[in-house]
Amino acid sequence: MTMHAQTAHRHALDFADAAFAHDVVAGLSGKPKRLSPKYFYDETGSQLFEQITQLPEYYPTRCELSILQRHAADIARLIPADAAMIEFGSGSTRKARMLLEAAPAITAYVPVDISSEMLMQEARELKRDFPRLAVCPVEADFTGPFRLPRAVASRPRLGFFPGSTIGNFEPHDAAAFLRHAASMLGGGSTLIIGIDLVKDAKVLNAAYDDAAGVTARFNLNLLARINRELNASFDLESFSHQAFYNTERRRIEMHLASCKRQRVRVAGRSFDFRAGETIHTENSYKYTRESFGAMARGSGWTPVAAWSDLQGYFSVQALAHQD
Ligand code: TRP
Is the beta carbon of 178 within 6 A of some atom in ligand 1? Predict the structure, then answer.
């Protein structure tokens, strides 16, 4: 790195720290208190998340993989020749690989992610395993506009948004994301998207509050990160993980509950907690085929196919966007 690049890098970090501090202070000043789930994914958080996907209670990843495995050929039939696949928030490329293997029509792959380390690492491995594929990673927040690489310009486009990540958006933000994806991908494009379905509350509650306590550690790690990066005084022993299905709103809510009355210092300020008061950290919305289809139709997309696992827990849908 040159001196100049180093300075620029340091400034970018300062800027990220300042944004983190600002968001945390604003969130803890709110009523109710909340924190943004985008800060879950530091190194420890990403590792814990990977563990969550392997938990016996956490069915979404297993279900989605089984759907992609079983129906890869059906999905491949919807993909035009010489297509570019754009994956929103790629992380691990495990799911993308299943489509790439089934659909040689995909000749370019554009993983989009804010975390550059994993993005570049995965891109290198993918290039090695698919030597004929043009791999063009984009480091960006996929919820905002970003520049598509040149390799995509002349190709028909396929969007890929697995993992029920859309369920972590508020419904109006989910609809806004679908409109944004439609405008980025353009007329004639297809979007393959993973949706977690409404189901028995017992199954849902277990998936987000596992017996081994991995999801609890994942949630609490947010406080550990704030302690470390923002000089805060959260006592991790006196906050507990809370996750429950809110039937009316069709969402899992994750909270961190204060076990007692206490005061916590963060970035030079103090925040008071009542006993039992919670910080709301994330939602995971569940849809029915119908409720998701209605939202898609209202956001520029037409559902063209949907596949499910044998238990009907999870759904992979193909949506088409005309001009
Ligand atoms: N989008 C997935 C879900 O809602 C994965 C996920 C995001 C998740 N944040 C999480 C899983 C927090 C468990 C806990 O299920």
Answer: no
Note the pLDDT tens digit of each residue in 221-231.
999 999 999 99
- Cα 274 to ligand 1 centroid, rounded to whole Å: 27
Task: Report how far apart, in Å, the C-alpha atoms of 244 and of each of 19, 201, 256, 279, 321 are.
Answer: 30, 8, 12, 14, 35
pTM: 0.93
Which tokens hold the place of 44? 């420890």
Q: What angle do CA 48, 309, 313 make, to 5 degrees?
A: 60
60 in ligand 1 pocket by Cβ < 6 Å? yes
Under 8 Å between Cβ of 133 and 82: no
* H or E element that contains 159: strand 157-161
Query: What's the CA-to-centroid distance between 60 and ligand 1, angstroms?
Result: 9
- Tokens at 190, concatenated: 């297809």
Both structure tokens of 145: 């506009």
Residue type, 292: F
Q: pLDDT digit string (tens) for 8-54?
A: 655 665 777 899 999 999 999 999 999 999 899 898 998 999 999 99
- CB-CB contact of 194 with 224 (8 Å): no
Number of neighbours of residue 133 by Cβ within 10 angstroms: 16
Q: How far is the CA of 206 from the centre of ligand 1 (A)?
A: 13
Q: Could you give the CA distance from residue 318 to residue 139 in angstroms, rounded to a whole number?
A: 25
3-state secondary structure 237-283: HHEEEEEEEECCCCEEEEEEEECCCEEEEECCEEEEECCCCEEEEEE
Torsion angle of alpha carbons 109, 112, 117, 118, nearest 10°? Answer: -60
Residue to mutate (ligand 1; options 50, 242, 282, 287; most atoms within 8 A of CB): 282
Q: Are strands 189-196 and 314-321 parallel, antiparallel or unpaired?
A: antiparallel
